[in-house]
Amino acid sequence: MQNFDHVARLAAQLPEVTEGQEKHRGHRTWDVGGKAFAWERPFSKADLKRFGDETPPAGPILAIRTADLAEKEAILAANAGPFFTIPHFDGYNAYLVQLDQVSAEALREALVDGWLAVAPRPLADRYLAR
Description:
There is one protein chain. By secondary structure, the chain is α+β, with helices and mostly antiparallel strands. Helices cover 38% and strands 22% of the residues. The chain is built from five helices and six strands. The chain has helices at residues 4-12, 45-51, 69-78, 104-118, 121-129, and strands at 17-21, 28-32, 35-40, 61-65, 83-84, 94-98. It has a six-stranded antiparallel sheet. A hairpin with a 2-residue loop joins β2 and β3. α1 (4-12) packs across α4. The protein starts with a helix and ends with a helix.
């Protein structure tokens, strides 16, 4: 079972990551090069309303950026279960992760992919060349 402390520990292993807080609600974020690649994403009242009679995924929810919408769709198709999306994310290159359902390895890979999606190209190239 993963939580936000696991996210912080895994994200800190990537180059030049800074942990911060979202300015409006104070949720944790993880950035590289001034761009967020992962952030806490609890459901808003509007999100909960959109679930209707369906029970929303429980536990802590993390959002992770993707390079584009095609990558998002590929990730969601390959990782049904802990990886999902909601209507609020339609047309947006990010998806959600149910932390208490994802393995440590899948979370690590997702964070690396999210980091690569927003990291400055020279930094990403150095990371991949190591």
